[in-house]
Amino acid sequence: MGWCPHCEGYHPTHRDYDTGMISCSNCGKVLQHDEFTEEPTFVKGAGGESRLAGSYVKSFQSDYSESFRRTIDKGKQKIHELAVSLGIEDVGATNLADAFYKIAVERSFTKGRRTDQVAAACLYIACREKQKPFLLIDFSICLGINVYVLGAVFLQLCQLLSLQEHPIVQKAVDPSLFIGRYTNALVGENRKVNSTALHIIASMKRDWMQTGRKPSGLCGAAVYISALSHGFKCSKLDIVGVA
Fold this sequence. Notes:
By secondary structure, the chain is mainly alpha-helical. It is 52% helix and 10% strand. The protein has helices at 65-86, 91-106, 115-129, 136-143, 147-160, 167-170, 179-187, 191-206, 215-229, 236-242, and strands at residues 2-4, 9-11, 13-16, 21-24, 30-33, 42-44, 50-52. Strands 3-4-5 form a three-stranded antiparallel sheet, with no helix packed on it.
């Protein structure tokens, strides 16, 4: 399964082993083209010596079957642990993250990278796809790593999955996705506070106030104004603790 920019959705992919092409099964668009040859090719080295170009590709059915299965299982376990730690109860999001991780393993993306970072990037993309209210920093705090390190893995994984034209990459995070989470943490479930904060966020969007600002800051400001307008007593420190 992969993202097709022509169909603008996820569809099963077909790999043609004769041509090395991976195409969308729905529309036929070529998503990736790997060139393989069974004939040995030689290139000249720096000292003028000849050496074999490329490398041998082994099949998963032979040497890599057990290793491949163990790597997949390890990634799925880490994705499940992250989902439990962050309170992500959507089975569809975790299943989608598992599919992303399997693609990452098949294309050797996990080599040289930590399992928890790749798993977190897969789960974050799945949360963005399912419109779950989680920021990348939530995952970095949970793993205890720098958010910029995890961000680099996320962007590289998006490139591997051909998501450059996907709204996940093209469009900024919608701050309104986090309003419900912030209001519940500050004043509990309150529809009036939540509705007013959403209207404030919408006004910010119309006035371009969200441009260049972090979603957490925008949500914090909107919830703070909304809570005060509805008679709830809270300080800026309370907002900082939530945001």
